[in-house]
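subagent[fold] <- orchestrator: predict structure for attached chain, return tokens only, no commentary.
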Amino acid sequence: MRALFSYLRLNLQWKRQPSKLWLVFMVWIGCLFYVLFQGGKTSVMLFVMVSLLSLYLIGGGFRGVGRAHGQRHLSTAGDQGEMILAGDQVQVRLDVTIPGFLPLPYVIIRETLKRHNGESWSFEESLIPSMRGKGELLFQTPPLERGRYRFYGTECISEDIFGLIENKGQFTAAGEFLVLPRIAFIPNWQMGSRYSRLGGQQTSQLMSRPETNQINGVRDYVYGDRISRIHWSATARTGNWKSKEFEHESLPKTILVLDAIADHYESDAAFELAVSTTASMLDYGVRERMGMGLFTTGQNKGVFLPSDHIGERQRMRLHLVDVVADGKGRLLDQLEDHARMFPAGTLFILITPLMNEKVWEIFQFARIRQMTPLQFLIHPSIEKNKEAVINWSQSAHARGVSCYPISSLEQLPAALGGGAI
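subagent[fold] -> orchestrator:
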């Protein structure tokens, strides 16, 4: 009996006034006394009707939403199986099964989606279950930023047809997914072109890459090309001299250094731009078969040696999902503590909003270890400090360091010489 009252207390909630429970109870007691002391067909009929109503009201707490369960299905707006990128919306389908034989006029479903940093979203929808107690709920999340997301307990709420009793139930339907950083497609990095007109040490190293035996296409004849390089079929077809274009060996190993020190960023949007720039370069490295590594300077440091292995690239992507601008201290000190992971001859790409002497110290650190430094200058408010950014870029080029000012992710392909998206 104690278990009965405990169950009712947890699963039955009376709307508006708690006295309604006592009201129904008193009505039933009154009908019982009416049968005992008055008798007759009318009293018996009234007692039976009130008893059935009471059983219906109380029975909803034992069967129905209290034992509901469901299954969740997630999909993106695009093709099934695609990775979820920041800015995408996730379509959620929740199949709910409510056991029991008592009819329910409607069921309210409440969902809570939480991000790894504590942000949460609440969804509330209603559905009308079928005669078998089955229902399907469809809804769509707002555009999501990068991070780990999880659906917590799903709450079901129903009322009887008279609106007196509110029954509640809760179940957990697995629903966890990752949202990767935004990625800009980089069709070409001008520094990686053999015929780039950019000057400097970086271009000299890339131009010295030896060719392979794999034909990559056809180009116009250049004075001095050997006869063996002439593409006779293309020459005959076009009427102009054409030469064979061979693929070059892969670019030098590259390491991306993502500045994740909190004091260096003026807003969360600036850090998200830095993370998206890093992810875009990783994506470019995968397509170009470049050996890329990653180093992040937050409290949860990421240390990945340059590699072109698919599994290692996936680990880097997952790390960028969780990285937060919570680092402290000097960036140079953290680089010196992990100096062993920076092999000589690599491209050292620093992704940071800094424009001060600390950056020159980092470039000096890279050159001492025979690395080639570059900077991706993250500056979302570039229009407000346009003159300072231009002066910094010119000063960097004068010292032999390529600097790419990035004010938005859409600008990244053009900044690297590959044209707009």
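orchestrator: received. Logging for downstream: DSSP finds eleven helices and 18 strands in the chain. The first strand starts at residue 12 and ends at 14.
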